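Aim 2 progress update. The chain analyzed this quarter is reproduced below.
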Amino acid sequence: MLEDLTTAASSATVWPAAYPKGYAVVDVETTGLARHDRIISAAVYRLDERGEVEDHWYTLVNPERDPGPVWIHGLTNDVLESAPLFKDVAEEFSARLDGRVLVAHNAVFDWQMIAREYARAEREAPVRQRLCTIALSKELGLPLPNHKLETLAAHFGVVQQRAHHALDDARVLAEAFRPSLRAAATDGVRLPLHECRPLTEWSDAATPRIGQQAGAGGYRPTSWRPARKRPACPYPNPGRYEEGRPLKQGMRIAFSGDTSVERDLLEDRATEAGLHVATSVSRLTSLLVTNDPDSGTSKVVKARQYGTPVVDEAAFGQLLGDVEPATSG
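Predicted structure tokens:
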């Protein structure tokens, strides 16, 4: 009965034409939280444009290394050893994601884990946008004491059955996302969509096989490219960025929060353009790049105090295409 009322209310809502035409609600369980960690299970609930479930899919994935915190996800060496490799499920995964907005709770984590797995398999995930349900909850002003998945689920009366099981977490999120989406459509809320750019570079050094503990047998964590020290900017700081004008070589650029492009890669692009990548915000900072100017991070707060200009990642990407050379002499 409740489902019928939900569907009826959704149908009665005048749907914003600019909203996406379909969603893929995703949850992945992993061996850990670092860049070298691997996906061990994945689930996708496909939803139509109004958030109604079309179908769902789930798979285990052999991470080719120790499964990590078994006490959290419950997936042991024995269970995962006979599971398919990610490259073997990549095509089916792609079919579930293709043409849809990826929806996840703390979406940047799920997206980056997925993007790295595709890069290892020498493929690209067919995802161009993602939506974080934490960000959507903030946009809607939901009265939540925290932003845990179980808290969001409880707010909408969704019952969790197996926390940290990818299929059940994806189901819970899909059921909580539907009323969130409907509320956003009713109030004309702009969805917090972020661009997803697939990784095109990756290098894996020796990784432990399944059953081998991290740190054993010469294993060391690796990221998608060799670590190296970024060279110092050779140009003097010309001052702050001015809206409507190009960036200039030597400007000090700081980053804060989630970015759709890997942060290291984004910083490399800035460095290659002749900009100085700063790790903090000071009175000398020329520009702060953030997709969440209301986040309240220390960098955002300092930028407000100092009057440092702020732009989002998309605007910064456009500015990078036309950086003015440093003044000679």
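The beta strands are 22-30, 39-48, 53-60, 101-104, 129-132, 193-195, 252-256, 276-278, 287-290, 310-311. DSSP finds eleven helices and ten strands in the chain. These observations will guide the mutagenesis experiments scheduled for the next reporting period.
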